Automatic annotation (TrEMBL):
Lineage: Eukaryota, Fungi, Fungi incertae sedis, Mucoromycota, Glomeromycotina
Domain called Core Histone H2A/H2B/H3: residue spans: 29-108
Pfam families: Histone, Histone_H2A_C
Keywords: Acetylation, Chromosome, DNA-binding, Methylation, Nucleosome core, Nucleus
Protein name from the UniProt record: Histone H2A
InterPro entries: H2A/H2B/H3 (IPR007125), Histone-fold (IPR009072), Histone_H2A (IPR002119), Histone_H2A_C (IPR032454), Histone_H2A_CS (IPR032458)
Gene Ontology molecular-function annotations: DNA binding; protein heterodimerization activity; structural constituent of chromatin
Species whose genome carries this gene: Rhizophagus clarus
Length: 152
């Protein structure tokens, strides 16, 4: 490493004009502010991480640049849908925190999500409340109700 200082080399940080600018031999070079692919796509889910996982997973020899963006958007949409339905289930049970039970109720009561996740077991999710019709007491029809009221 050279013992010459920044002042001697002509490289110095310009703090007066712009925050992210460097002065190299009296030429101002703008530094680009880095933006993630998630921010550019307007997503919350990490596009870069999904791209890395797709490459490391040996799903295909080449992964296009649009594939992780599309996959991140799809996963984000599905998660938002499930969380919204689970939040409604939690509100119905007068709870403020979503539990695995609320996730289970949300998924099993929605036809499309149930079909997508029919083979998935949610730990601590419980089962849907259901009583078989055979086990229920027989319901009285209108005629039977009218006959009982006439007898009294």
């Amino acid at each position: 490493m050279s013992t010459r200082s920044r002042k001697e080399t002509g490289i110095r940080k310009d703090t007066s004009s712009k925050k992210n600018a460097k002065v190299i031999s009296r030429k101002v070079i703008e530094e680009k502010k880095l933006t993630s692919r998630s921010v550019r796509a307007g997503l919350q889910f990490p596009v870069g991480r999904i791209h890395r996982l797709l490459r490391k997973g040996n799903y295909a020899p080449h992964i296009g640049s649009g594939a992780p963006v599309f996959l991140a958007a799809t996963i984000e949409y599905l998660v938002a849908e499930i969380v919204e339905l689970a939040g409604n289930a939690a509100e119905d049970n007068r709870k403020k925190r979503i539990s695995p039970r609320h996730l289970q109720l949300a998924i099993r009561n929605d036809d499309e999500l149930h079909k997508l996740l029919e083979d998935v077991t949610i730990a601590q999710g419980g089962v849907l409340p259901n009583i078989h019709k055979v086990l229920l007491p027989p319901q009285k029809t209108k005629n039977e109700k009218d006959n009982q009221s006439e007898e009294k």
